[in-house]
Amino acid sequence: MKNKKISFLIVAIVAFGLFVFTFAKDNYLSAKRVYQVYLNGTKIGLLNDDDDLYDLINERQQEIKEKYNVKKVYPPNSFDIVETYTYDDKVNDVDEIYKQIEEADDFTIKGYVLRIHKTEKDEETGEMPEDIVISAINKDIIDEALHNFVYSFVGEENYKNYINGTQQEIKDVGKKIQNLYFNDQITIKEAKVSVKDTIFTDATSLSQYLLFGDNITEQEYTVKQGDTIQSVSENNKLNPQEFLIANPRYRSEDSLLTINDKVSIALIKPVLSLTAEMYAVEDVEQYYEKQIVYDDNKPMSYSKVTQEGQNGITRITQTYKSVNGEDNPGDVINKEVIKEKVNQVTTKGKKPEVIYGNFVDTGGDWAWPTNGGYKLSTKYEWRWGKFHEAIDIAWLPKNSPVYAAGDGIVVTAKMGTGSAWSLGNYVVIKHPNGIYTLYAHLNTISVSAGQEVKKGRVLGGIGRTGRATGDHLHFAAYNGMPYQGGQHFNPMLLYK
Question: pTM, whole model, 2 decimals?
């Protein structure tokens, strides 16, 4: 009896299951297949056929197709369409859905997206910049623009020789590229790009954007009589290197300008950061120094040049990094004296005063702050839209002595903090005549605030603390206290 009840229960369950399955199947088959349309995540209607909408968009947007020379226009990137089943008879007309999309005014076309991800914090804000996203109609435009960007800073011939491994070996002097790379992370992907965004359709305009950024609008200057690349650059807050990048038809700072010629004075503001690791051998003129010797047998009024000065030449081999055409102090590999310099010697009838360290008295009011064998890697000049308020003295060994340029009192001797962090270890001296001198990026400091120093006193050693890519001295001069109302001036004027 018990087995009969169990068998009956099983039969009932199976029968019920077949009934439910049959009912569901019949209802499922009677449901209508439609397409649910979403815009910005919101449902905007149902369509019988998704192809009808795509065809209508492509038919109506002839202006977009002509503007960008494309064969097809697509819905916005915020658009989505999903196949579904419904019993609802209220399916929208395709024209009604199209009008809602048209109001969004955000149709797309097939193109390519160049995404630039910065890997270093912004120097001014200290924050990581947002990615830069650039749209172009095809990949060839992006490729050509990137090559043009590289050519602007290293030259097309130099780049091709580097890529092909055909750079000439350096016999006496010269330079060659050891490595070349973008500091940014770059990706190029095919995508549907919005016609509301800027879409570059030619390599020339994209190349200009990569070089000038938001300053893409071309600024022109008409050359006048007496103009030089140096004078035009200075008058328009450029340095000559920036001028040459903006005007590639001129090969060097010594190139002659033609009266009434139009030249670009747009401020270079590169969107990308290109580093060229360079190997260079250069002959650097070593200017003779003026020395004084004293003869106790001569009267104090006696002064005569007893040895004429002659400049020398030192051949310096070094590696350094050039970032967007701006050479940063690097590492000296070798120095070879090609021609010895001969210092000018003046004999005077007075005993010498105490001299500190290895400093040599030049006989002038102001002392040069380093030993010889240096090169000015950056002058007192405009540099990428900002004025470099000092000279950078490079190509000297780490911890090479830094001397006080004149008598005075040390008012600052510390590691820079806050807005002055980029100076690293720095010293400021107040001189009796109201002039202040500043010495930055020191590896070591050997004086302290409040200390009285004489001309030639060792202040510390050359280094690369703060914002510096190589060992060098950042040397500046001010009328008044630096960064507290003092006005900077060219420190080379001290030695005129």
Answer: 0.69
